[in-house]
DNA sequence: ATCCTCCATATTTGGGGTTA
DNA sequence: TAACCCCAAATATGGAGGAT
């Protein structure tokens, strides 16, 4: 994509790596979303930037998808090993949101009931996340104040002892708180996934039916399965 | 992509939906892989086909990513009585992709109270608009059904008269009719079928032509404001 | 029914330059 | 520094026809 061809290899230049991460992250999230809508599939995606920030998408519910994963994968994990790989992460921190506008008065006109339902659910989820976040902020704030109060009490006591006879006024708390080849696309895909497989970065689930046509060995190996019934 | 532009909407044709699923699934897996390599990010992806098959990709280790997710994202749900949820970029439909994209994956950790409040307000507005839209759809749907019911009643009446050997009298549909012409017979059959439909004795096909069933309407009504569990 | 190939067009996204 | 905008090269992927 873009001017130059990309080598499937960690981008060295820190800046462009960051930029690419941002772009591709959005692209991936979008694609995941589209897949879930277009094909009525359940999709869950977790992304952690090298700087440690987390991003996620779940067409239905992350926990549900995870549970489903554990359930289905657990069953066929008898003869499959999964392994981990450790890559490293670095600094950086991603940004702000374009919070404003646009959620105000848009399209909706072309949406069907189902989409509306889903959209509503998503928005509700968002609201819930935000509320949770607010609660957390508040509770942190409160404990901070408590801590301060304790400190102040000590200080007060100290002062009293040190200079008894004096009367102290109540102290008021306030103030601030703290790449691939263009040969054949299909083959490319297979190759990539195969690579993934070979390096153990992922593992295949070996679709429940071992009754896959055997004339596509490579594809079978590569693809996490051939498609769906 | 491809020949025609794509509507972000569930693909009706079962076959092409399956094909698209397969293609896009591969594409998504590939992109996820590329992101993890190029940008040195940790990516975990779960896909469940509508038929129930599971596919996955994990740059490091699925369990590790899940744990990390629970740790980072789950924090905000400590004192939360509700289940964890995720936002996705359905909001995209609302017009601007940007906000939605961010809302989708970005964790809220960098936001302050003020931003959170604003965001929450916007999301609530969105939810309200969606509900309004749903109400409108439902009411339109209901009036459509009522209208249909009237038509069917008329046809039934017509049928009754016909079957009793009464002279066929034009009752309502279109212009006057003579005797039992092939056309009227056809119409009669159609009426029966429709009647069966209306009484819920039959089941509907996949028709995408606004022909919803009672069941659907009922479900819509039920969902109207229930949103999701 | 599933999957592949081919092909034309829709999208994505490097790279640069600019601006908030 | 991060977020956009623009643009063209690089990809992704509908659609159609064919084989399995």
UniProtKB/TrEMBL annotation, chains A, B:
Keyword Ligase belongs to the record: no
Pfam family of the protein (one): K-box
GO terms, molecular function: DNA-binding transcription factor activity; protein dimerization activity; RNA polymerase II transcription regulatory region sequence-specific DNA binding
Location in the cell: Nucleus
Chief localization: nucleus
GO biological process, alphabetically ordered: positive regulation of transcription by RNA polymerase II
Keywords: DNA-binding, Nucleus, Transcription, Transcription regulation
Residue numbers spanned by region Disordered: 205-229
Protein name (record): MADS-box transcription factor 13
Organism: Vitis vinifera (Grape)
Source species taxonomy: Eukaryota, Viridiplantae, Streptophyta, Embryophyta, Tracheophyta
Gene (name only): MADS13
